[in-house]
Predict the 3D structure of the following.
Amino acid sequence: MQGQIEQTKAEKKKKILIVEDERNIAQLLAYNMMQAGYDYDIAADGVEGLRRALTGEYDLILLDLMLPKMDGFEVCRRAREKINTPIIIVTAREEEVEKVMGLEIGADDYVTKPFKLRELLARIKANIRRASNEFVKKPEPEENIIKIRGLVIDLNRYHVTNHGAEVPLTKKDYDLLVHLAKNPGRVFTREELLEQVWGYEGYYGDIRTVDVAIRRLREKLEADPTKPEYLFTKRGVGYYLK
Ligand code: CA
């Protein structure tokens, strides 16, 4: 009996919180989560969504932006102060994508409605996998600090300084910076970065995600973002750091 209980525990389904006020969409999402082998809960407004998110019992949160009582931006920002659960923003408008990515509300990803189911599932899987890897991965003691001129990345403390001043970065921007800094001079295509940093298979990713993140990193790191000293563009190819 004991063995059986442990086995059930080990195979515990991942649980997804769906924050969505449109009933049809919420039910469509719920049905597909169930089909894909996930447990789920639905919250139909922002206040309830935040309350549930803060319980910390979810492996991932699908968050609509336009919600009654509290909008998705606010839910995301407040949730992020307390929990590290991956958050995927589900937005109806293509134009909102850059806004979402640029706002630094702490979202991990986004999809646009109407979403393609396979794409959404691939992103859910990638985000859950990355979150659980982060939990397990520990950096090797001897390679804990990367120094590139004034730029110092402390891998143990997830801490970045530039000429002694702290550089506040979102988790994803930090991951991108570390990935580039571990391979100085190596040019990565945007597709490679999507796959290696965001964890997508190239087919599903949106390369604008990389452009927006690079732009944001430059604004944080470079004295003059238009004349970068660290983060360079190889025209027609991709990005590199040196
Ligand atoms: Ca809505």
User: Anything to note?
Assistant: The two ends are 58 Å apart (CA to CA). Residues 21-22, 64, 66-67 surround calcium ion (CB under 6 Å). Residues 1-9 have pLDDT under 50 and may be disordered. The longest helix spans residues 117-136.
